[in-house]
């Protein structure tokens, strides 16, 4: 299977490198020139469990450099770059190409469907982790980390099965779901648990899980999400907010930083619109109040605006 990753940061590199090691033909597409150059020169160095291996695969900064159509395009860019990224990927998307998002939050599949057609789009969520240690060098967390994929209409198709088999063959524990929307909401609750709160406070998980008042805020935000999903008729497996709160920190060290906090600290925009903002948008559709998530969205956007890099600020 020829697989192209649109966005090859820590997670894209980790999953892409693992798939390449398992026999897939993988291309990593990312604008980080030093990262691309290092991979092409010496391979992708992957550190896991204290053992480092080097995987040979191809990398480039634009889809036009691939020179062929992909069987599977996996989108892993920041949420706010989704539309421009999939438009730039046009040279590698053919009539039979499957486009799949593994991004956090909700709403990416709608954007991808608008650009390439809903029949080409699949969705997925992954608990695989990765840290970019430097150009061409990642710390990967794949073992025991589940990935769930599925068709948007819930069908268990041949193409979904083929993708699942490719992932599993490479050592990425992958399950097929006939309820991928429910899976996406379950993962959203985990992102909601700490994303906005840590972005606003600057706390790592050690601090987040030390203050009862922050736990109360997180549980309230998760409860809103659960109420919204239930009102929308989504089949979710997480119905107790404390379960999402516990799952969010499972296996993570006290110094762990959420992606939303990392984005702010690195001077980038956050994905708050696709995490807490998703709860707010869906809540408006089904008439469920979401004051906690609305407040977190406002506060994070206020921080972005105050730094001067918020879109539309003069």
Question: How is this structure best described in words?
Answer:
The mean pLDDT is 94. Strands 5-2-1-6-7-8-11-12 form an eight-stranded mixed sheet, with helices on both faces. Strands 4-3-10-9 form a four-stranded mixed sheet. It is α/β, with parallel strands linked by helices. The chain starts with a strand and ends in a 7-residue tail after the last helix. The protein has twelve helices and twelve strands.
Name a few traits of the molecule.
314 residues; alpha/beta; eight-stranded mixed β-sheet; four-stranded mixed β-sheet; 12 helices; 12 strands
Write the layout of secondary structure elements.
Layout lengths: L1 E5 L3 H12 L3 E5 L3 H10 L1 E5 L2 E5 L2 E3 L11 E4 L6 H7 L9 E4 L6 H9 L4 E6 L2 E6 L2 E5 L5 E5 L6 H12 L4 E3 L3 H22 L3 H4 L3 H20 L9 H9 L9 H7 L10 H11 L4 H17 L7
Parallel strand pairs: 1-2, 1-6, 2-5, 3-10, 6-7, 7-8, 11-12
Antiparallel strand pairs: 3-4, 8-11, 9-10
Helix pairs in contact: 3-4, 6-8, 6-9, 6-10, 6-12, 8-9, 8-11, 11-12
The overall average pLDDT, rounded, is 94
Major sheet details? 8 strands, mixed
Number of strands: 12
Q: Please estimate the helix content.
A: 40-55%
Gross geometry: globular
N-end to C-end Cα span: 47 Å
Which blocks of ≥5 consecutive residues have pLDDT under 50?
Answer: none
**Largest sheet, order of strands side by side?**
5-2-1-6-7-8-11-12
Number of continuous helical runs = 12
Q: If you compute it from the alpha carbons, what radius of gyration comes out, rounded to the nearest whole angstrom? A: 19 Å
Q: What is the chain-wise order of helices and strands? A: EHEHEEEEHEHEEEEHEHHHHHHH
Name the structural class. alpha/beta
Strand content: 15-25%
């Amino acid at each position: 299977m020829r697989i192209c990753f649109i966005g090859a940061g820590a997670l894209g590199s980790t999953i892409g490198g693992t798939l390449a090691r398992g026999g897939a033909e993988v291309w990593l597409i990312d604008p980080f020139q030093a990262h691309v150059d290092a991979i092409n020169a010496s391979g992708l160095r992957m550190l896991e469990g204290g053992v480092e291996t080097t995987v040979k695969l191809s990398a480039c900064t634009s889809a036009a450099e691939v020179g062929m159509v992909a069987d599977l395009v996996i989108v892993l860019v920041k949420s706010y770059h989704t539309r421009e990224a999939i438009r730039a990927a046009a040279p590698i998307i053919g009539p039979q190409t499957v486009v799949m998002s593994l991004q956090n939050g909700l709403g990416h599949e709608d954007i991808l469907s608008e650009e390439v057609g809903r029949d080409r789009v699949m969705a997925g969520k992954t608990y695989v982790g990765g840290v970019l240690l430097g150009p061409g060098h990642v710390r990967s967390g794949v073992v025991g980390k589940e990935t769930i994929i599925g068709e948007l209409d819930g069908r268990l198709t041949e193409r979904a099965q083929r993708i699942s088999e490719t992932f599993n063959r490479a050592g990425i524990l992958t399950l097929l779901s006939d309820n991928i929307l429910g899976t996406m909401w379950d993962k959203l609750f985990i992102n909601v648990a700490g994303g906005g709160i840590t972005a606003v406070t600057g706390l790592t998980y050690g601090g987040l899980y030390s203050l009862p008042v922050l736990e109360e805020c997180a549980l309230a935000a998760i409860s809103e999400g659960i109420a919204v999903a239930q009102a929308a008729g989504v089949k979710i497996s997480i119905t107790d907010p404390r379960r999402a709160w516990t799952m969010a920190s499972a296996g993570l060290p006290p110094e762990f930083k959420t992606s939303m906090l990392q984005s702010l600290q690195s001077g980038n925009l956050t994905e708050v619109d696709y995490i807490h903002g998703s709860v707010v948008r869906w809540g408006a559709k089904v008439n469920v109040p979401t004051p906690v998530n609305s407040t977190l969205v406002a506060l994070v956007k206020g921080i972005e605006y105050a730094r001067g890099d918020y879109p539309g600020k003069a």
